[in-house]
Amino acid sequence: MTYGVGMRINRGLVFMSDTRTSAGVDNFATTRKMFTWTIPGERKITILTAGNLATTQSLISLLEERSHVVEDRDPSILKQPTMFQVARLVGDTLKEVIAESSPNGQTSDDQFRASVILGGQIGDGKPTIFLIYPEGNFIEISDDTPFFQIGETKYGKPIIVRAYDPDMSFEDAIKLLLVSFDSTVKANLSVGLPFDVEIYEDGSFSSDRHKRVESTDPVYQAISEDWGDALKAAFKGLPSYNI
Amino acid sequence: MTYGVGMRINRGLVFMSDTRTSAGVDNFATTRKMFTWTIPGERKITILTAGNLATTQSLISLLEERSHVVEDRDPSILKQPTMFQVARLVGDTLKEVIAESSPNGQTSDDQFRASVILGGQIGDGKPTIFLIYPEGNFIEISDDTPFFQIGETKYGKPIIVRAYDPDMSFEDAIKLLLVSFDSTVKANLSVGLPFDVEIYEDGSFSSDRHKRVESTDPVYQAISEDWGDALKAAFKGLPSYNI
Questions:
Q1: Angle of the B218-236 helix axis to the B170-187 helix axis, nearest 10
Q2: Domain ranges of chain A
Q3: Peptide bond into B194 cis (omega under 30)
Q4: What is the distance between the alpha carbons of residues B79 and B82, in angstroms, rounded to a whole number?
Q5: Are B98 and B78 in contact (CB under 8 A)?
Q6: Percentage of chain A exceeding pLDDT 90
Q7: How many Cβ atoms are within 10 Å of A202's Cβ, its own excluded?
Q8: B150 SS3 class
Q9: Which A residues 213-242 touch B at CB under 8 Å?
Q10: ipTM, 2 dp
Q11: pLDDT, tens digit, for every residue of A76-120?
Q12: CB-side exposure of A206: number of CA atoms within 13 Å?
């Protein structure tokens, strides 16, 4: 599995994804699942992937036109006029890749299944995020649904539901996602460090705020440990229930 | 779905289950999923069920020998000499019920699938808990695995993993499970109030400490609200992460 989150706050967008890929517990590795494209001053696009690794790698290769020789590459993802058009392009490409692998037509239950979070900003458009399904269709983020998750989503959802605030700072947003990811890692072997983190400030059209958080990262370790203690303290403060 | 937890602490056992049953979002109802049998001074047995409602109701009816007229009933669950033998009986009965519904043999993916948490104490034995699979086999609780969950288990797992302590009081154990259930209810429509809660004190062989927690319960409401605030406060105290 995988765990990936794309979240919108008033200041911009925040993305986080783990890097564990596995075909059974005896065959796992570290793989990047976050991909970015930037044209400074014009567009910034980020994709997080979850699901069959052959499918998602093929998707990214097609989007980057790796079937062309280097000098002929001119990825159409960099030409679409709006994020909505980019979402259509990514959805169509994803659907094609899955259809090629599964000759009988693709369903959500397929072993070739994959999901994608697409976020970014183009020109005058607002920064936005889409969740793209293996069927190629997609939904867009809104004030009522300010974040999308893919992969192993359940363990880390309650804390985001409780602590999300659209006015939060980027620092707090990263902290929130680190806690959500840490809860998931503690409960599920198929999600693992390092994590890729990226923040995108509204109107910046730049991709320089990216970091890979390793398991040895002292701030991550402090957050992980302090969160356990803080939870216990918070828990102690609750009213008692006796029967 | 369902959410049910059986947890062992040094003082005894704690059980909690939700009561929502649904066949699609437009067809849901409240059903008891916690069942207890007691012979004062001799044995106390509690069962939590998750899965296909026809299967679990049939299981309970067979265990209570409801196929017999009232005066002939003499449930064998009340005759087994040890909790291990009770687990075998429940597992075999569960396997039979599922096999009857699915003529081609039963697998875990079956629509008739159901899981059971069985806990209690018989005579000189220690209080213990078993998790019984639809295949009829089962595992027993241990110091390393002091709780079992069935149904919609993921949302509520992180808080139990973090805050469980074998020395905790019954009050704290109930509080912990209420927080775990509250996190699940906030994230998943298929789990709902009221909750059935039961605590069993080592050596008491009694079932009088049982309560149904309604959504209007003021202590539950306070825990639910305070937990959100406490989480936010705990979250604020964590170190910041900037990139």
A1: 80
A2: 3-235
A3: yes
A4: 9
A5: no
A6: 74
A7: 14
A8: strand
A9: 213, 219-220, 222-223, 226-228, 230-235, 237-242
A10: 0.85
A11: 899 999 999 999 999 999 999 998 887 665 555 567 889 999 999
A12: 4
pLDDT given at position A174: 96
Cβ proximity of B12 and B170 under 8 Å: yes
Distance from CA of B70 to the nearest CA of A (A): 32
Residues in chain A with pLDDT values less than 70? 103-110
pLDDT for the residue numbered A138:
97
Contact A39, A205 (CB under 8 A): yes
Tokens at residue B69, please? 């007229």
Q: Write out the H or E segment, with its range, that includes residue B98.
A: helix B83-101
Q: Is A75 exposed, middle or buried (0-12, 13-18, 19+ CB in 10 A)?
A: middle
> What's the CATH fold of domain B3-234?
Glutamine Phosphoribosylpyrophosphate, subunit 1, domain 1 (3.60.20)
Cβ burial, residue A44 (10 Å; 0-12/13-18/19+): buried
Facing A231 at nearest CB: one of B159, B170, B220? B159
**Closest CA of chain B from A154, distance in Å:** 5
Q: Which two tokens stand for residue B76?
A: 């064998």
Task: Read off the tokens for B176.
Answer: 């912990």
10-residue mean pLDDT profile of chain B (243 residues): values are 95 97 85 94 96 93 86 88 96 92 63 92 96 95 96 94 94 96 92 96 93 95 92 90 86
Q: How near does any CA of chain B get to the CA of A67, in Å?
A: 34
Sign of CA dihedral A143, A147, A150, A152: negative
- The SS3 assignment for B212 reads strand
* Structure token pair of residue B144: 């390393």
Q: What kind of fold does domain A3-235 have according to CATH?
A: Glutamine Phosphoribosylpyrophosphate, subunit 1, domain 1 (3.60.20)
